Amino acid sequence: MDDAPDGPAQDLVADVFARDCASRAVFESVTAKWASLVLLALGEGAFRFNALRRKVDGVSEKMLAQTLQALERDGMVTREVLTAIPPRVEYELTPLGAAIAGRLRDLADLLEASVSDVAAARQEHAGR
Known about the structure:
Elements: H1 22-30, H2 33-42, E1 47-48, H3 49-55, H4 61-73, E2 77-82, E3 88-93, H5 95-113, H6 115-126
Antiparallel strand pairs: 1-3, 2-3
Helix pairs in contact: 2-5
């Protein structure tokens, strides 16, 4: 007699709403301010560290390094050391990172297009 459930094992079902699900930890990591901005920037192409730091205005060197390490750990960014004098390091999106950056780009485009609507809503809210 087969007592196995018809679907995947419950512990293999990803659920971002579940406290201990790995997808939630990755969701929190990706939606952090600096990670989202780094993914958006890298969606435009490969960057060296300092160029990326200039692109993501306001990020500290330490925070950018931590963010890149986390994105590399999660398989969204690759770090390539280029043989040169001095050595150069470039960061680029993986296919997973590119897919996520594409979704973030759609969100960023919507937010940029909605700035006047948000400003009006904020003004109305402040007048209450």
